[in-house]
């Protein structure tokens, strides 16, 4: 499993979003990955999901970040 936040974020994205984010600048990717990490840390529902399925929690957080854009 990748340890770099950007790589982890890209891995959590669906293929269409992964391609779109990969085309962005590294700084934009880092901002999105940071927003994704904040989403994972701050949402209690994701904590529960993470206990059942960490990949599902990461994918849900990635979906939310992409719907919102950067903070």
Automatic annotation (TrEMBL):
Residues 40-50 have a biased composition (Acidic residues). This is Uncharacterized protein. Residues 60-71 have a biased composition (Basic and acidic residues). Residues 23-71 are annotated as: Disordered.
């Amino acid at each position: 499993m990748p340890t770099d936040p950007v790589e982890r974020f890209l891995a959590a994205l669906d293929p269409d979003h992964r391609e779109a984010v990969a085309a962005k600048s590294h700084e934009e990717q880092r901002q999105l990955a940071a927003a994704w990490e904040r989403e994972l840390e701050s949402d209690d529902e994701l904590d529960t999901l993470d206990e059942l399925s960490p990949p599902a929690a990461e994918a849900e957080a990635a979906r939310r970040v992409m719907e919102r854009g950067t903070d």
